[in-house]
# Entry
Amino acid sequence: MRLDGKVALITGGANGIGLATARLFAKEGARIILWDVSPKGRDVVDDLKSGGVQAIFQQLSVSDEAAVISAVNEACEHFGRIDILINNAGITKDRTLLKMSSQEWDDVISVNLSGVFHCTKAVAAVMKNQNYGRIVSASSVVGIRGNYGQTNYVATKSAIIGMTKVWALELGKYGITSNCIAPGFISTDMTDLMPEVVRNQMITQVPLGFWGNTEDVAYAYLFLASDEARYVNGVCLNVDGGFTR
Ligand SMILES: NC(=O)c1ccc[n+]([C@@H]2O[C@H](COP(=O)([O-])OP(=O)(O)OC[C@H]3O[C@@H](n4cnc5c(N)ncnc54)[C@H](O)[C@@H]3O)[C@@H](O)[C@H]2O)c1
# Structure
């Protein structure tokens, strides 16, 4: 198993890509710390535990720094270490620039950007003491290419690519790698709600000609979180069927 005995913290693990990642990592032998603002995370963890996986759920918002610090302390008391951090939680509040309110800007920045900062800062301190860690964060193809109506979201996803490179530089000497992924068009509950005509139009831009699924992204997280990627540091891995090239 590729993550045998590792302790993996996955943010936003109650749904979509985070949920698929929690299940895949558990199958690969990891013990799971699952964070989500939604109480649904408890069902996910109960389900993992019923399959014999060691897992805990902590309900919190990654934007709440005090909650993040106290949950990291609690998780360390429980498992004794944190080997992998998957900064996966993210939200959108789309609006074109001229219509976007400061509240919509702040809401997305506080989860997607400040949340990643709080989680990484708290967990990197633990990883430094272990002299081992894998940090993988969710950027997006829109962080590279931009996207209509997503000033706030794109700002956070571009920033994640930059922060990843800073952390690769700062944390490498502690045995910690920092990488990110940039998913493209991935079928989730959210994107499945889009009109079929829009979905079909988007897919014309993807050389492979189909939408990715949550497992496609989970496998990219898995590689970067595993020891197979021990010499990969500071990169952004596109998981987009060739959309960005
Ligand atoms: N789905 C895509 O096509 C796609 C493409 C590129 C990037 N991404 C990124 O991948 C990540 C996962 O996306 P998804 O499609 O699975 O999203 P999703 O909406 O299905 O799941 C996100 C999870 O994060 C949780 N969450 C939201 N705010 C939170 C907070 N403040 N604190 C803790 N948890 C919180 C939600 O409750 C949910 O369980 C996001 O960062 C997203 O930006 C997704």
